[in-house]
Design a protein that fits this description.
2 copies of one chain form a homodimer. By secondary structure, chain A is of the alpha/beta class. Chain A contains 10 helices and 13 strands.
């Protein structure tokens, strides 16, 4: 049995995957505690939850993989700049492994989710997983392996500027895709208190609020640009949309599709790339991020075995 | 000895490469004849020029590789939509092979040039070769192999829009990088008769012509955006600039560098990617495109040998 955890800023989603069948046998969620001790405690407690649900010992788990919203080194040991978790830098793998007594490997949450989406959607060749959440970034998988690039920045489409007169982005540029699409940026620009700011914006847009309509149009334009961008640079076979915003389902995909069609209507070249046909939406509450984390953990033990 | 040809819209550049040393032993140039018969004749005559220079028989060449400005199938046999060569569709490889009696393989000119730049610059890991010519496109090489993507569209950064209010692009969109950077687009927008329109624009900009300054600024902004884009999506280790516009040397790189610095000054995130440090300029009149074509031809024979 292999364990995978997706540690989000507010909640942690975890699965135990059967080695033989590759199926999810049990899944648990618990709120995330932030800060170094809080995050370690959250991971440890969640793994114990899974063991309890299964009635097995934690030590019986072959591996534990953890997806975290931050920069992770390519050896899968350390996380840095995990702002939403209140972590500046933490040796997550070694600390958690010493407590649980199992091999542990960590990965950036979007990259882990990309591996999970690729496996769960049974894809082959190349795929980009575009995460639409508080932030916006993509994870690129080619022939089953993550493509990290020179410095792990591959897929950072959120900070590509598509409009020099666009809204200011927290990264310092103007008109970044994340400034138009990111849940955090939308909430800031909307400025109205709401549990789900983007949903609040979409509701207000449906009610005809002009500023909400403008924000929704910008969001759709930004998502369409990100998808087009991933095709024009990496020419991936499939672009899978995931992340919190996808809970909006058709309310998100219909305007995005319209924005894509607008581009292809204008351009025979874009039409020839058949971008809309490459697009998929991850099902609501998909276990892909946690499942991908379990795959990351499995890679850790394979590595441990092959490299002694 | 292996032969490589870069067939451009006006001239064809060719090299013969020594198998053992990998060095260019002879290089010739001749004007390109357009149309199906003209292109075949140009390739055949140029290969004979090389044989003549070397005092050897054409049949003694191990392979002939040809880079062409058009869509080439991934088996390296056929070219389509080679507008600048007056070719709608041509079985170049088989036709030329039947005349020369040597194995022939064709490749898109930018992709062939990318392979050549990667080899000549002695690069490793990942590189994007950004061609700045009449059109704008990149060729991506990872661990020595071309990355074509799902439909050979990988690296088509020329048609990423970076400004919804930007100039109209021949592809039908607005604000495409090619509309800001491409020699064809610049010439059209400049509208003044000149042998080298972009150089004419730069001269006029130096003389203070406001429209020329605007065009030059847009060009620099577009090149900087393309370089940034290749790092933010593919995170390539190196971006090599090549193509006709690079003949402007510092007159091109200084404003491009300024545009890149502008972005990094605003964004700590961009600064952390160290984009300017990944940038290289191909030397003037580099044999990279023809050399890359020779590598394409070599791949053809390797394939012929391994697959019978």
């Amino acid at each position: 049995m292999r364990v995978g955890l997706d540690v989000g800023g507010t909640k942690t989603d975890a699965v135990a995957v059967d080695d033989a069948t590759g199926e999810v046998v049990v899944r648990v969620r618990r709120p995330t505690r932030v800060g170094p001790e809080g995050v370690v405690r959250t991971i440890v407690d969640t793994v114990h939850d899974l063991a309890g649900e299964l009635g097995v010992a934690v030590a019986s788990f072959a591996s534990v993989g953890v997806g975290l919203p931050g920069q992770v080194d390519d050896r899968g040991e350390r996380v840095a700049h995990a702002v939403n978790l209140g972590l500046e830098r933490l040796e997550v793998a070694s600390v958690v492994a010493s407590v649980l007594g199992t091999p542990v490997r960590v990965e950036n949450d979007v990259k882990a989710a990309a591996l999970g989406a690729y496996a769960i959607e049974r894809l082959d060749r190349s795929m980009a997983y575009l995460n639409l959440g508080t932030g916006v970034a993509a994870g690129i998988v080619v022939d089953g392996d993550l493509w990290r690039g020179a410095r792990g920045a591959a897929g950072e489409v959120g900070h590509v500027s598509i409009d020099p007169r666009g809204p200011a982005c927290r990264c310092g540029q103007r008109g970044c895709i994340e400034a138009l699409v990111g849940g955090g940026a939308i909430a800031e620009r909307w400025g109205r208190a709401a549990v789900l700011p983007v949903r609040d914006v979409f509701d207000a847009a449906d009610a005809g609020d002009p500023r909400a309509v403008e924000l929704r149009d910008g969001l759709a334009r930004g998502v369409a640009a990100a998808v087009r961008l991933l095709v024009l640079t990496c020419d991936v076979d499939t672009v899978v949309l995931g992340g919190g915003l996808t809970a909006l389902r058709e309310r998100l995909t219909v305007p995005v599709q319209a924005a894509l069609d607008e581009g292809t209507a204008a351009s025979g070249f874009l039409r020839s790339l058949d971008v809309p046909a490459r697009l998929r939406l991850l099902p609501p509450a998909s276990p892909a991020p946690a499942f991908g984390a379990a795959l990351v953990g499995a890679a850790a033990t394979r590595k441990a075995m092959t490299h002694g």
